[in-house]
Amino acid sequence: MTDRTPVSLSEAEIAAVRSWVIHEDEAVIAFNKPAGLSSQGGRVQAHTLDDLLWAFARSNGKRPDLVHRLDRDTSGVILAAKTKPAAGFLGKAMQARRFKKTYLALLSAAPEPRSGTIETPLLRQEIGRESYMRAVSADTPGAQAALSRYRTLSATDDGALVELDPATGRMHQLRVHMASIGRPLAGDARYGGALTFAGRAAPRLMLHAAKLTFPHPEGGYRTVEAPPPEDFEALKVAAGL
């Protein structure tokens, strides 16, 4: 679908991106993105998932395009459109908030209350070459409305497994909203998360995009699910969750 200059990929990269496919049909392709892989752009001199989509290029030179993004250290479901009409349809559906995203996160302790809604506005800030989001009051110039829902699935003395639902799609929204109620995500050093969890190292953001429900270009809705990666599961088990 895209006609940018093709990216040269190794056999190992092609095999890897093909192994991440969890759903494919005539219009879309969904992946279980590993943590540590940028969706697009980024300053790290390594191929992004967007680059790796050249593994699916057709004979006419067109290839799928990502419909949305995940943070580099967030694992899980990410969707690409295989045709231009599908990309247009899904882009409009995304803007109309017809996508339902469900995330899993590990926290050092269960939120209080154990389920709820966070509607704190967010403000984007540039600090050096980095972009951050900050929870602010509604009358702050440039503040963006944001809505997140959370639900504690299980909790022990060592931590909690929480389901998160971002009704809006602001950058770092779930991370900042949970930090704003005193429950930053494990491994999220940028927003105050501890780098240990249940007595073990949490060297990255423990956030996983577990499920995506979206309107399909051919009608109806589809739901795609992705199992959490091994490091996430290991910490969950260590905490008895």
From TrEMBL:
Gene3D superfamilies: Pseudouridine synthase (3.30.2350.10). Residues 28-180 form the Pseudouridine synthase RsuA/RluA-like domain. Belongs to the pseudouridine synthase RluA family. This is RNA pseudouridine synthase. It comes from Brevundimonas denitrificans.
